[in-house]
Amino acid sequence: MQAWRVLAPSPIAGRPLRPVELPTPAPATDELLVRVRACGVCRTDLHVTEGDLPVHRAGVVPGHEVVGEVVGMGTTVADHHIGDRVGIAWLRRTCGQCPYCRRGAENLCPNSAYTGWDADGGYAEYATVPADYAYRLPDGYSDAELAPLLCAGIIGYRALRRSGLEPGGRLGIYGFGASAHLTAQLAIAALHARVFVMTRAAAARELAGALGAEWVGGAADEPPEKLDAAINFTPAGDLVPVALRALDRGGVLAIAGIHLSDVPVLHYETELFYEREVRSVTANTRADGREFLTLAGRHRLAVSTTPYPLGAADRALADLAADRVNGAAVLVPGS
Length: 335
Description:
single chain, alpha/beta, Quinone Oxidoreductase, Chain A, domain 1, Rossmann fold, 2 domains, seven-stranded mixed sheet, six-stranded parallel sheet, globular
């Protein structure tokens, strides 16, 4: 099968991602074999490829926003069928035994494993997934539209929950890529939020306005009124104090990325006083994924995608790194 491997993590301009021919993987006894129909291109893939995240599997095939068709399964799988459309996401396995798993916080499991980091992912024609970690997908979306929901959407949903935004609240969003453009829509539809977007790309600002943002400005601009909650979707640590200063008293900033550049020294009185909070977001639980996909089925989200053939995965990542992608880049094998 056609696939891409990260041969040696380095800046994307040095072509660390290379095309290869691999045998079709065989599913383990508890796994599904999935023919990939679409795979989203996530900024986490860029962090894996460029080495911002440490190597967990040498020569890994990236990709963890996979939509595909079940074409095979292990001997112990009982609740899936050949031909099912399923989703493969970032969280691949947890131990189920540690204190975090037992209390419902499997996203904090120290023995967790991740698709496209610990195991080969969806930058390929076929992929495997443990059956218990595969998602049922809502109707009414194309394969390419569903792919970004499986990380951008799910992580955005967890970030929204971590922000503590109440119905009708004022939400600030920093950065407006794949995750942010889905989260903004969900906040407006499900919470009737007032959304304020701060982002540097002109095309992203235009998209934010079209999707219902009340106000749109530059990445470090001050919104016209104080915010009840904010989410930083960018990898830029220097936006953390900017976002904290924009919060009202008691406001919460959630940081959605898996990688963040260094945060400048914070000034207590102007950025943290009056019980402002900073909360990180670490992966997601399967419950988060199921809840989000149910909401996505109930509230039809407009998913902005830029398709690429599987053979152009390196170009898709380079475009993402250079902020040339509006919405979400999606690899479509066979296109």
